[in-house]
Amino acid sequence: MTDKDTNVNEVVPDFNIDGECCIEEPENDEIYFIKSLLKVGRINLCYSGIRKKTNKEICIKPLSVNGHLMIREILNFFKSEPEKCKVFLPIIDIVIADSIRTNFVVLEGTFINLAETFNIKDKEIVDLQHIFLKHSLRATKFLHQNGFIHGNLSITSFWVKFNSEKEAKCIFHHKYIGEILLADLEYCIKIKDNGDNSKIKKISQQRITSKPKSYKYCALGLHKGEKMCMKFDFESIYYILVQLYEKKLPWDKFSDDERLIRKEKQKMRSPTYDFYRNIPEHIAEIVCFIDKKSPDKVPDTEDIKKRFYHYLKKKTFYDEDNYILGDSDYTRTAEYYRLIRKRREESNEPFSKSIYEEIIGEGKKQKKNSPDK
Length: 373
What we know:
Among the domains are: 13-110, Phosphorylase Kinase, domain 1 (2-Layer Sandwich); 329-367, no CATH class. A hairpin with a 4-residue loop joins strand 1 (21-25) and strand 2 (30-40). Strands 1-2-3-4-6-5 form a 6-stranded antiparallel sheet. The protein starts with 20 loop residues before the first strand and ends with a helix. It is α+β, with helices and mostly antiparallel strands. The protein has helices spanning 65-78, 131-145, 164-169, 198-208, 220-223, 231-246, 258-267, 281-284, 286-291, 302-316, 329-346, 353-369, and strands at 21-25, 30-40, 44-51, 56-63, 91-97, 102-108, 112-113, 124-126, 148-149, 158-162, 174-182, 189-190. The chain is globular, with a radius of gyration of 23 Å. Helix 2 (131-145) packs antiparallel against helix 6 (231-246). Residues 1-312 form the Protein kinase domain.
């Protein structure tokens, strides 16, 4: 990675509004009313508004110079694949507001940012159909197969719509995730077929070796100075998945302390990582599959899907004689670790990794000394 100062063309301009204002796009006879700032994390600015022509809700995001060029490149590409692009938050328009020297992307506005779901009080967010994992893998794989790396995935990159019908029928205080779409495409990197577009090529070359905008969701390899690659997108998805299951990340308490975050990411590869309470063992193991993927190839997601669907099958058919088929050393160790931890916590006995290792050692000793039948 480089230690150069931030490229000014990557800086998203500050845009503060006092009350409502509007942005006009004379070429398309469009007027967009900006109403208020949406909270979507520390990095991204986003505003809610109304599209005058349709009177429908929109989101408006200011863009950096490079972000404006990249999102135009992606939008032109998406026009040839409209059906396959339904996993992305729809882009309505790209507006050049000369009066305030700011470029904007106008997005579908009926979704809620995934980060904001943590602020919903008195309601438990439920993803019964595992829509986040399915849709995030599908969207990212589509980018990869067409020569793009997202490169900046975080929880604020995803937008959610709830299933109101299921919520109305539910007797519990639940909100059910119905749809999740990917956004933040202005941060993408194009790694092939740049053709004569020297600007896109230059932007991509700079981004592929630049420091991450935040260490919270970036891959472990980026802490080590490795350049951005496709498999790192899946690692970012994994960290978001952990946050959704556990309601936090193990390094939230470290703020942006790169050294401590890196150390925690290294530890979480272990099946006896003590932070995990809710994420299933089979899904926690996904990061180990990602680590083994080549940085120089378009990653295959079949092994991740296979592990995920084995978890679903095991969860559904737990009493079947063959439910353990497909388990790994990782999942068996993780399950046993959590079982011992749960038993000791329920009986108010102390527990730590060293106590677990003593129990394991004692069990092996007894097995070794037991007479053969």
